[in-house]
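Input (structure):
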């Protein structure tokens, strides 16, 4: 799971946002694909019922003798109506489109009005039989004749024309009545419609056939394409927003790393949202205060050093007048130690390595020169590694650190064998000696200022206890680190790591 899940704040935010979008739109798509056919059919049935209701209201406002002509004029390819003495639909079916039309019509007509509805789907190779204009005219003539014979009556006894509610014989074999849900899966080539027969009087029925418009149900890929496009758009906006929102966090991380390397790092730009500006301002204030603190400490130590050098010089002059040679030499030796400690303390406080600008340096040549200088001084040293290796570092700081490490190896381990190699993203510098090593409990204390090991690492060997402290500060100021390890064959190994990208 750790390999799959993101490892950054921006990655987590993007994953959460995109997952939420996919979940929302995915569930919407699933719901749409499950219920879209029924919803489209229900909408079409409601529209058909609305048409019948509108025509019913128009017909009711029309005088009885003009209704038949009005109905004839309102006929259209999608809506066929005719008044007969018998209903076309003798019994309502249970198709849900029929039920929708029935409920809508039942709300419009007076309670108890007899209404029959059914739904059908036929292949569009022909047209379901519905009264032709000539048959409607014949029916109208019969109805008018009866009305003249029985004035004021709304009852008609004349039967409808023969086969008025049956398909034409030429397409009888080609017509199929299909299940509506099955046909909705592919309505191309089929024409769904709903029929209604409504009693207007004792023997007067308004028969209507309304085609159902289900074209939207056939557009199956359009919602998926729109949803996919919208999801991709939101994902793109999420990437932009997440990167913009998390960029200050990355800047803070880089600024903290630079501050850990040196106090002279560039200040953060105080731009962005209010929270980001306040955080950047607080970070810059902290960096400035730390810098002032270190500067004040350095100035204080420099002043103390200056004040101490004057009495040391006077004491040195007075020691020259001591007649006892043995005592004079001891006094001068102590004064030399004091001056060496003051110089080392100043070097540690100033931390010149951290203030030195980084520059491309051939560290292989630099290490080879240090080893060569020690060898010329009669010390057992060796170098193993490439002839050249360029790295952007602070050369004087690295030289001082490696010199201190190699000199310690020579003093306390009788030799200093240096190995240079690259391991992954780091440059490794190994300094091995053949001494007694250091107990694990004291390996970290070696880097404490003024700490010196007793026993085999005697005070007689000299040193102020600041060499390893200065070395680690210099190496860490370049983004690296140093650690002390025991060698399997005996002795101590100091491993210096520096980032290969410099």
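Output (sequence):
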């Amino acid at each position: 799971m750790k390999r799959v899940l993101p490892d950054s704040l921006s990655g987590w935010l993007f994953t959460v946002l995109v997952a939420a979008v996919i979940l929302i739109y995915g569930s919407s798509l699933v719901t749409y694909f499950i219920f879209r056919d029924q919803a489209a059919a229900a909408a079409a049935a409601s529209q058909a019922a609305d048409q019948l209701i509108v025509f019913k209201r128009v017909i009711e406002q029309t005088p009885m003798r003009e209704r038949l002509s009005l109905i004839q004029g309102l006929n259209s390819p999608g809506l066929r109506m005719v008044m007969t003495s018998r209903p076309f639909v003798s019994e309502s079916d249970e198709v849900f489109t029929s039920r929708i039309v029935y409920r809508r019509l039942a709300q419009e007509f007076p309670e108890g009005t007899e209404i029959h509805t059914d739904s059908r789907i036929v292949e569009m190779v022909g047209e379901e039989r519905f009264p032709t204009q000539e048959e409607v005219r014949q029916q109208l003539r019969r109805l008018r004749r009866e009305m003249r014979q029985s004035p004021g009556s709304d009852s008609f006894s004349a039967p409808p024309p023969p086969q008025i509610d049956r398909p034409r014989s030429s397409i009888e074999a080609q017509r199929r009545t299909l299940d509506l849900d099955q046909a909705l899966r592919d309505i191309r080539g089929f024409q769904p419609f709903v029929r209604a027969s409504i009693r207007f009087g004792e023997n007067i029925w308004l028969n209507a056939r309304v085609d159902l418009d289900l074209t939207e149900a056939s557009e199956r890929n359009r919602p998926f394409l729109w949803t996919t496009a919208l999801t991709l758009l939101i994902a793109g906006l999420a990437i932009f927003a997440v990167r913009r929102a998390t960029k200050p966090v990355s800047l803070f991380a880089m600024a903290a790393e630079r501050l850990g390397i040196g106090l002279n790092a560039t200040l953060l730009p105080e731009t962005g949202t209010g929270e980001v500006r306040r955080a950047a301002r607080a970070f810059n204030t902290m960096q400035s205060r730390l810098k002032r603190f270190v500067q004040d400490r350095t100035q204080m130590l420099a002043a103390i050093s200056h004040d101490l050098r004057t009495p040391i010089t006077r004491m040195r002059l007075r020691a020259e007048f001591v007649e006892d040679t043995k005592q004079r030499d001891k006094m001068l030796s102590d004064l030399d130690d004091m001056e060496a400690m003051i110089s080392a303390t100043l070097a540690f406080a100033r931390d010149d390595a951290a203030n030195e600008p980084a520059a491309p340096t051939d560290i292989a040549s630099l290490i080879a020169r240090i080893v060569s200088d020690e060898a010329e001084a009669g010390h057992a040293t060796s170098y193993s590694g490439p002839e050249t290796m360029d790295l952007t570092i602070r050369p004087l700081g690295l030289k001082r650190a490696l010199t201190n490490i190699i000199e310690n190896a020579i003093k306390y381990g009788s030799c200093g064998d240096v190995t240079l190699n690259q391991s992954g993203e780091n440059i490794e510098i190994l300094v091995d000696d053949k001494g007694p090593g250091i107990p694990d409990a004291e390996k970290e204390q070696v880097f404490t200022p003024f700490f010196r090991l007793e026993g085999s690492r005697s005070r007689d060997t000299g040193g102020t206890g600041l060499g390893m402290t200065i070395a680690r500060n210099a190496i860490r100021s370049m983004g690296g680190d140093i650690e002390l390890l025991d060698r399997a064959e005996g002795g101590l190994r100091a491993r210096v790591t520096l980032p290969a990208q410099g």
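Notes: Residues 123-129, 153-188, 455-460 have pLDDT under 50 and may be disordered. The chain has three domains: 11-221, 262-348, 355-499.
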